[in-house]
């Protein structure tokens, strides 16, 4: 019996029903796995080295009907799936996905208070804050009323994140119209770094010198292990390079770039206490900031329009203008696929009984 075609435009991405898409997933998976087994027995392909990638491709191909169904939904249905009376929407899934994203909020100038001296005594708090940021997928910088973050501290955070590609995104919030935590925008660290170095050339020069010293540290020869943590290395041209000292703490060589960058700022003559408020943030980063957002109460059509119109990696989730989290695009779509398959399995199981 031919599958029932769904109403819609002639050039439909997936012209059949959601049930057909769900039922095809295990069928396609079984066929591809049997084909793989026969191929391996006949020609010993693929080798064990590539077997994982082949299995991953098989899973992706088996999910293709559901993925096409998702795309068709974006085109024609405005965001909501219905499988045999079971409803599934972006709104149901977005907050669940957002809660799984590991987010760190940095509200205090990388841990350095406003009245703290700008010297090596503050480096330990910088490193502690950077460790928290490095362990997160998203770091939120709270500018508050514009007298919380020095621009040099923000640049250190951005530069280190861009160098490691961790966190993957930096989001900015601030006090707006008497509302703390208002969403301002987000961007990838690498794009923020490009904008910042272009806007402040002396920061770019300090960054390049810090990168050079960090690279030299990597190629240097550390002292014997029994002498404890390496605080210096011997360079191939017979010079010694020392990590910048940190009061009351051993310098962490994994953050050598940030330590050398702060050292470059320490050697400068300009005041390091230039604060970053919303206006300064926009002067530095506005061309690359993603400032649009989706409210937790938005309907499915709004989510569908957002996903269909932009390939960006994250979408900002807000509540009455206050930032809640960044929702990863891929995770949101994957969660929708999983829930749709689970719904289809429940329906199939109920029909079988």
Short structural description:
The chain has 353 residues and is of the alpha/beta class. The chain is 49% helix and 16% strand. The protein has 2 domains: 18-98 and 330-352, no CATH class; 101-200 and 257-329, Roll (CBS-domain).
Task: Explain what the structure shows.
By secondary structure, the chain is an alpha/beta fold. It has helices at residues 18-43, 48-62, 64-76, 90-99, 123-134, 151-164, 189-199, 201-219, 256-266, 278-285, 300-309, 329-352, and strands at residues 80-83, 86-89, 103-106, 138-142, 169-176, 179-187, 232-234, 240-242, 293-295, 314-319, 322-328. The protein has a 4-stranded mixed sheet. The chain has a 3-stranded mixed sheet with strand order 9-10-11.
Topology:
Blueprint (H helix, E strand, L loop, with lengths): L17 H26 L4 H15 L1 H13 L3 E4 L2 E4 H10 L3 E4 L16 H12 L3 E5 L8 H14 L4 E8 L2 E9 L1 H11 L1 H19 L12 E3 L5 E3 L13 H11 L11 H8 L7 E3 L4 H10 L4 E6 L2 E7 H24 L1
Helix pairs in contact: 1-2, 1-3, 1-12, 3-11, 4-12, 5-6, 6-7, 6-9, 7-8, 8-9
Reading side by side through the largest sheet, how are the strands ordered? 3-4-5-6
Number of DSSP helices? 12
Distance between the termini: 22 Å
Give the count of structural domains.
2
Mean pLDDT: 79
User: In the CATH hierarchy, what is the class of the largest domain?
Assistant: Alpha Beta
Largest sheet: 4 strands, mixed
**Shape, please?**
flat
Assembly state of the chains shown: single chain
Beta-strand share of residues: 15-25%
Helix and strand run: HHHEEHEHEHEEHHEEHHEHEEH
Number of strands: 11
CATH architecture label name of the largest domain:
Roll
- Gyration radius, rounded: 26 Å
